[in-house]
Every structure is written in C-alpha cells, then in structure tokens.
Amino acid sequence: MRLELFVLLTVLLNILHICSSSLIDNSYHRYCRTNIHGDQNCYFTVAYWFNFLNFRQWLEKLPDPLGDVSLNIYCFDGAHIYLPFPFRARNLKKLHVKNCLIRSFMSEWNSTSQYPDILEEQEIENSEIEVDYQTMQEVIGSTLNKKNDCGQETLIKLTLKNNTYKPVVKDPNVSMKSMADSFEAFQDRMKSADYLCNYKHLKYLERSAETPLSKNYMNTLTDKSHYPRLETIKMRSNKIVNFPEQFKRWWDVFPTLRELDLSNNSLQNFSFDIPRKPTTNLVPLLVNLRQNDIKMVPSDIDKYLSQLPIIIDVGENPIKCDCNAEKLGNYLRSVRRRYPLYKYLTEVVCKSPSQVKDIKLIYINYEKCSHTKEI
User: Fold this and answer.
1) Which carries the bigger pLDDT value, residue 254 or residue 191?
2) Number of folded domains in the chain?
C-alpha cells in the first residue's frame, strides 16, 4: 500500500509541476536552480499560459546578490506566453523559448525600463509570434532612434528558427497588402538612419526555416549595422533563390565570418569576389550550400583558395559533371590536400551527364576534354 501511495503522489506532483507554471505564482523558486554564484537557471513547462511580467516581478523581489538569470520555456501544443520584446528583466542573460504562441510581443517596444539591455543569448524556435497591426503602425509612424531600431546590441547568440508571424488585425478594412506596403516603407526609412547599430558581441546569428523572408532582409541586416565579431551565419530552409550580394564580399560586412550556412534553399548559382590585396588569414570560410539547385559553379572557383580561403560544400546538388566541371574537380582535390579536416566535403556525386551519373567528381579524368566537347 505504501508503494502504491508513493507512486500516486509522484504522479500528482509531476502533474502539479506541469500545470502550476500556467498559474500566477509569485514564488518561482521551485522552477529555478541556484548555484554558488547566485545564478538562477529557470525551466518552465507551460500547459496553458505563462506571463513574463509576473516572472519579472518575482526577479525584482529577490535579495542581493543575484547572479545571471536564464529563462527556458517549453510549451505544450496550444499553450501561449506573454513575452514583450526586448525582454528586459533583472539580470536576465539567456532566454530560450520553444513551441509557444507568443502574445504581446510588441507591447513594450517603446517603453522605458529600469533595466538596461543585457541579454546575451536569445533562442526562439518552433513558435508563432503574434504581431498587433495597430502597434506596428505606431512603430512605423514613430521617430526612429537607436534604442527602438537596433534592439539588443548586447547579444552574443541569436537564434530564430522555424517561427511564423501572425498578424493580429482588429480593423476589417485593413488588407494584407497594405500591411506589407507599410512595413516595406518602414524598412526604406531605416536606410536613412543617422546612427550605427553596433553588434560588437554577436558571434552566432541564425534565421532558418522562416519563409517568406522579406525581400529587403539582407539590406535590413547589413545597412547601418556593424558585426566585428560575427563568426557564424545560418539561413537554412528559407527558399532563398538569389545568392545575397552581401556575401560576395563578406570580409567587408562580416570580417570575422567562419561559417555560412545556406543549405536547403533554392539557389541555382553563387559567386564570391576575390580580394585584391593579399591576406595572412589562414582560417577558411566554410560555406554550406547543400540541398540547393546548383548545376554549375563559378568559372573562377579554382581561385577560391588563394587570398581568403573558401571551402564550398555543394553536396546533394544536381551537379553537371561535363567538361566545365573540371575546375570544380581540381578545386575539390586542392581542398583535400590543403585542408584534410574537410575531406568529407569533397566527395561530390555527379547527377549528369548519364556517363558519369552517381560517380564522385574527384575521380573523373578530364584529360580528353576540350572546350567544345563534353565527356
């Protein structure tokens, strides 16, 4: 009997742990782990709803000294959270949100806070973000300033993955086209800003599986913005058709970039400029272009290992291995010799013509090729 009671109590406690995070609870200690430095690592599993404002009030009442705070929220299907950008709270350094419907997202976009921007890590995944149209109109009609435009300049890691944005429109006369036009006009205004957004701490930036991206997304990302330490950019599964111009001369915009991931898009071609001045940079830029629609590569790809070394991964593309692919084969063999760590990226399989289908390009002999004759 004691064993049965113990099991029953354990089940009830687990249920209470899941459901109580959906209630207004002024004591969050049971959900937060505290280390010897006073850091608070908080984990909430939300069955119904969660209010960030209540959590923020709880943080304000905690005695000093208070270390860094991390907030991790996972929602069951159908649960929602009230989470106003830019997520200011006492000592909040990390915010991870997954599988949630996010409401009141823009409610504090222009509010004054007693806490500065200190967030270092932000991850929002598999979530739906409600955007109130009336609030967006206020943003669009406001005077641009560094605070409400640049957002969190303290971030080290920013991940936005597999999220959707849901417009909330109370006026039935507002059309989706008028909303899109207003937003495009706002982005045009951003170009004339007289300030620079300096993301001097940012090392990792991901925006994947968010379609459709705005046609001006890359301009918005790079215009009036500085990324002196950014090492990784991931833009996977966004149905990108045209290779962004900003990546052709990446060293001008992202001088410390080490990894660029554009896999699982709809790219048919790509190209990188070759810097005119010699460089002593020995760390290659790794470019992931897997699962696109690339049949041919740039004619100057043999120079991609000269000044600023670029290692291109074009696996799982419909590569056409005719005589024009000879330079790609030479490039892949050079990568194998100079950078053996990336040897696995060079085993590109041909998709056409039929004579070499399913053969690895590095093993094809092009000695009999001419400029007018295909193998």
Assistant:
1) 254
2) 1
